[in-house]
Design brief:
Blueprint lengths: L2 H17 L6 E5 L23 H14 L3 E5 L7 E2 L2 E2 H11 L3 E6 L12 E5 L4 H8 L3 H9 L6 E7 L7 H10 L3 E8 L13 H16 L11 H6 L9 E5 L2 E4 L16 H10 L3 H14 L1
Parallel strand pairs: 1-2, 1-9, 2-5, 5-6, 6-7, 7-8
Antiparallel strand pairs: 3-4, 9-10
Amino acid sequence: MKLSHFFRFAAFGVRTILLRRKDPILGTVIVTDKCNLHCRHCSVNNITAIVHPYAQIRREMQTLYDMGVRILFFCGGETFLWRYGERTLRDLVVEAKAMGFLIVNVVTNGTFPIDLPEADLILLSLDGDRKRHNMIRGDTYDTIMANIAAATADNICFYMAINQINKDSIEDVCRQARDTKNVRAVSFNFHTPYPDTRELALSRKDKAACCRTIVRMMKEGAPVFNLKSAFPYLIDNRFPTPCHQCVVIENGKVSTCGRCIEVPGLCDECGYFFVAEYTLLFKGDPRIIFEMLCTYLRFI
C-alpha cells in the first residue's frame, strides 16, 4: 500500500470513529450474476444471468466514487465472464484506477486465466482440499491451480467460505496459500445461511473450532488476511450489523453492507469476517485497529 493511501484511509478512520459517521469507504460493483458454476453454498448466481453493459457499470463506479468509496471490488457471478464489445474486466480495473479508486480488487472462482496484474488483489475462491472443494464447486480444483501457476502477478488471495462440507480442510487451504507461487494470502468467511443453503451453516461450536485452527495456522506462518481479535465476535455473532462503511451496487441499486441485507434475519447470522472487522474497527476497538494496520500493510 502506498504511504499516501495509508494516510488517507487513516484520516477516514479517525473521522468515522470520532464523529461517529457512517460514510462508506468500501464498495462493490456486481458486473453480472452470470456464472459458469453452480456451487452448493451459493444463492446469488444466475438469477438473471445478465451481463451488465459498460455504460451502466461506468455510472455505478462513478456513483460509488461520489459517495466517497475508495476501495472498490468487482464481483459476480463470475467476474471474468464480463465482456462488452472489446472491453474486458481489465479495462474496468484500469478505468477504476484512473477514476481515483485507491485499491481495486476482483473476486473470481479462478476457472478462467488469471491475467490481471493491474488489480491490487484477486480474491479467488478455494473451498478446501481437492476433494472438498470439488464437492462444493464441481471438478474445478486442478483447473484453478493450473491458472494460478500461470498467473502473471503474485496478487492472488484465496477466499474460503467455511461450511459443514469443508470445515475440516482449513489447514489444507492455509498451507496451500503459504506454499503456492503467486498466492499472497488466504481470507476466510463463515457460511452465511441463505434459506436455501441453511444445512451448510456452522454451529457456535464449529465456529470456535475453526477459529482455533486458523489461529494455530497463523502461528505456524500461514499468511491469513483476517484479524484474530475479531474471532470471538464472529463465533457468537455479536458484532454490529450492517456495516455502513461498505456498500454494494447491483443494476443501479445501492445496498448497505451487502445483498443479503434484505433477507429477513440473515444479518443476525452474518458470517462475513470483513463485516465484523470493519464494524469493530469503526467503533474504535484498539486491538482491531492495531491488527488491521499490521495486516493491511503486510498484504496490500
